[in-house]
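Weekly modeling sync, notes
Attendees: S.R. (lead), two postdocs, one rotation student

Agenda item 3: backlog of single-chain predictions. S.R. asked that every request posted to the team notebook include the full sequence so nobody has to chase files. The rotation student volunteered to paste the first one in as an example of the format we agreed on. Action items at the bottom.

Example entry:
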Amino acid sequence: MAVPANTVLVSSRTNVKPDVEEVIKMISPVDTPVVTMAKPIKATGKYHEILNDELANAATNVNAEGDDDAASASAALVRTANRCQIVKSTASVSATSEVVGLYGYKSQMAYEMAKRAKSVKRDLEFAASRNQPSAAAGAGDTMAGLESSIATNIVYSSAQGAGATPGFVGGDTAAPTDTGNAAVALTEAKLKEAMRLAWNNGGQPDMMVVGPVTKQICSGFGGIASLYRDQSVNDMKPASIMAAADVYVSDFGEIKIIPSRHSRGQTALLLDTDYLAMATLRPWQTYELSKTGDNKKSSIVWEGCVVCQTEKAHAKIVNVTG
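Predicted structure, as returned to the notebook:
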């Protein structure tokens, strides 16, 4: 059928608005399991110190009638620390960017700052969960990550090789040395061993942070609890097993297995969240910078550190396959 004469067609118009969605889709994940699960505490200085104490080992305690009392030995407190790190991101937009019409948002600066707020929290998770050492440096102090701090309860998935974790020595925490061997898939026996080591030292890990490959391997362990999706009374469909079975029931308590995009996949971190904290020296804040030209600048900043309140409560399994 022919188009009638003088019919106005879209293809001949020069003022047709483009079809652009007003919602911007962000693919980058923003989950931060370690920072989220750690309890918030306050820091009052750049060098945040922790005091640890232990009871004497249980032993035979028999005393003769009428004996004089003798003082029992008492161990000195152990003093460890971490350094507060500044995480920051700055946005700069031209004055023109703030007045032109935009798809998806009204203010370029507001959008840029919202992006940076999510981005720096991922940077904080990255520092808190990995093998970063603590150090005082002119370029900025760095906090020790949990992988560096856990130095007592260590299980090697393969031969130890060159693997070593110095832990807190001489006022700072050094980075661990990798084994130099090929990574090996995590086994249930290694997980049980790590849980036992932490339990023997007074801890009870309730969260294990792992890479995506290890998470899938853990889903096949015999100790994984079956999780079911609830069904309503009127729903005739049977309950279905959820694929992301993530609670492991061990001899020493339940531990939730959480995949992380920011920790090192080669190390599984078993964390007792009763002894895990984030110490804040300066809370999240945004501020506008001085004007230096035909633009606008704003920054978002946080200062603090992850706190391994007693590293013996935690454990790690080293050299696993992502």
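Discussion: group reviewed the output briefly. The chain has five helices and 14 strands.
Action items: rotation student to repeat for the remaining queue; S.R. to check formatting next week.
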